[in-house]
Write a structure and sequence with these properties.
With 228 residues, the chain is α/β, with parallel strands linked by helices. It has eight helices and seven strands. The structure holds S-adenosylmethionine (SAM). The site of S-adenosylmethionine has 20 residues, from helix 3.
């Protein structure tokens, strides 16, 4: 812990491969941030026809994947995640929702993972970036998968400025959650990037068509449309 300066980044394990961790995540109610993900996508890309393939990077238990597929009923989503445990919950959720025909899930680790299509008209990702030890792999993967004209929408946590602010966020947003989820949330906030760091990542990746903005007390969005 740094008591004097801004909070430094502490990475967390990349994959969420613990059974208990995956179960707690699958059982948690993420409706507020995950509905916000879908709502903001619709606002940022108002008028865009979402009727082709969508790549969902780090899809986890497929909660965002499902909400996105329901909101845009003409698309097909390919979700990829490196955790067997998270994908087991994702497969059950997709099947229960009756959306197996519109959502494909594959196990693979970014950046090596090979998705069903070489490129996509839409690339989305929620809460993967802060897990990556080398965040550049996120932007290299977005660059590889986004076809000309593609809409890219990446939402993630923001690292707070201080331990006090971090604890305020845990109390505000996770006080009623099981201990394991509170611990994960704390670790994720420590592992998250600041908006300045994300902007530097985008410059390093030469992705000047993507912009980063703060959208809530704990989230940022990176979005843009690849020049076509
Ligand atoms: C916080 S969860 C978010 C899951 C989902 N997107 C959501 O919003 O509910 C992060 C996910 O990223 C996955 N992950 C982390 N690093 C990865 C990598 N290098 N390749 C693929 N998946 C990864 C983890 O296993 C985990 O399921």
């Amino acid at each position: 812990m740094n008591e004097t300066g801004p909070l430094q980044r502490t990475p967390e394990p990349e994959l969420m491969d613990g059974e208990a961790q995956a179960r707690a995540y699958a059982e948690a109610d993420f409706s507020e941030p995950h509905d916000q993900f879908v709502t903001l996508f619709g606002e940022f890309f108002s008028g865009l026809a979402v009727d082709g393939g969508v790549a969902d990077l780090g899809c986890g238990t497929a909660d965002v994947t499902l909400r996105f597929a329901r909101a845009f009923p003409d698309c097909h989503v390919d979700g990829v995640d490196g955790s067997t445990a998270m994908l087991a919950h994702a497969r059950a959720a997709v099947s229960t929702a009756g959306l197996d025909a519109r959502i494909s899930l594959l196990e693979g680790r970014i950046p090596e993972a090979v998705l069903p299509a070489a490129t996509y008209p839409v690339v989305i990702s929620n809460s993967l970036l802060h897990h990556l030890h080398r965040p550049g792999v996120m932007w290299a993967t977005v660059d590889r998968l986004a076809e000309p004209g593609a809409a890219v929408f990446v939402m993630d946590l923001l690292r707070p400025a201080s331990e006090a602010e971090l604890e305020r966020l845990v109390t505000t947003h996770a006080a009623g959650e099981p201990e394991i989820l509170q611990r994960d949330f704390r670790a994720s906030l420590h592992a998250a990037f600041t908006i300045d760091e994300v902007e530097a990542q985008l410059r390093d990746a030469d992705l000047d068509w993507l912009d980063a903005v703060v959208v809530s007390d704990r989230h940022l969005v990176v979005s843009g449309q690849r020049p076509g």
